[in-house]
């Protein structure tokens, strides 16, 4: 992955699309589509496909944020066609077909299975539809990509776990790693980043790649790890996201174990567990920044404009080289910075977090 320096404001990204010059006509097979899209001005149709709804972020943040930004960029004239694949790659392929039939001008896709989506991406491109890969680097001839620096996410989680372990961070200390789904290329990057930090510092006693990022599967994996490693021998748990952390912590609590557990996505339940002390950290990611970039890319592509002023980075997949990209930085979320992250940026209010079950813990942290 080749990166240029990317600086993204935590809540917003100011990009002046008006400064973009009109794209020159291309002699490629997509030139007629680009030209016709450019003539449409703000009257464009954007397709948005998100992968699942078990993770709270997609319906709560990503979809409404992208829709809001697209409307803002097009003076309210653009329309958004939206579907959620419910973690079903075959359903998502059908949804791409529907988007092609509906003649969207551009498609934003967060793939359920980044490899399986390749044929669908090719079909869309063959139909003259540019594709923006969102959050996960989809295979196929995509025109743009935005996500977070995923290896940095894993490193951030690993560093936080070592900090939580303190003097227990030794080669003899045993941890359990519960990674994400093998169908998600981000999961491999989180895993890689975490291993770079943890390997040689602690012993990974058991490690799992969790199908569909399922909290239930993570719960079962943690129960198996407790049986295999021994309840008194587990020093900490690397969980790749908050949803799985919930299942993991249920298994740990059931066995009477309290150890540091990582997470990701700053889900409300995860933030509440951090407040309560049952989860050590999460990774806070600015969904507005990521969503705004995706919307800016999609509108520019639909209108036949270049991405030079938006995407300063290049990322390559196994099937597409030097894709214009924006990688958004991340922050380690702990008890110490809840106010400065999720509350300050309006993800949640204090009353959202500090419900009756968490009021006493909130009071201790002076969350009022």
Describe this protein's structure.
The protein is α/β, with parallel strands linked by helices and 368 residues long. It has helices spanning 31-40, 57-73, 89-101, 118-126, 150-165, 185-198, 215-229, 242-254, 268-276, 287-302, 339-343, 350-353, 359-364, and strands at 45-50, 79-84, 106-109, 130-134, 144-148, 174-179, 203-209, 234-239, 282-285, 313-315, 323-328, 330-333. It has a 7-stranded mixed sheet, sandwiched between helices. A 3-stranded parallel sheet has the order 7-6-8, with helices on both faces. α2 links the parallel β1 (45-50) and β2. α2 crosses α10, α5 (150-165) runs parallel beside α6 (185-198) and α7 packs across α8 (242-254). The longest helix is centred in the N-terminal third of the chain and has 17 residues, at 57-73. The chain is globular and about 65 Å long. The N and C termini lie far apart (43 Å).
Low-confidence sequence ranges: 1-38
The pLDDT mean sits at 90
Radius of gyration: 21 Å
Assign the structural class, choosing from mainly alpha, mainly beta, alpha/beta, alpha+beta, or little secondary structure.
alpha/beta
Taken as a percent bin, the fraction of beta residues is: 15-25%
What is the number of helical segments per DSSP (H or I, 4+ residues)? Answer: 13
Through-space gap between termini: 43 Å
Task: Give the % helix.
Answer: 25-40%
Biggest sheet layout: 7 strands, mixed
Major sheet strand order: 2-1-3-4-5-11-10
Order of secondary-structure elements: HEHEHEHEEHEHEHEHHEHEEEHHH
Total count of strands: 12
Q: Overall 3D geometry?
A: globular
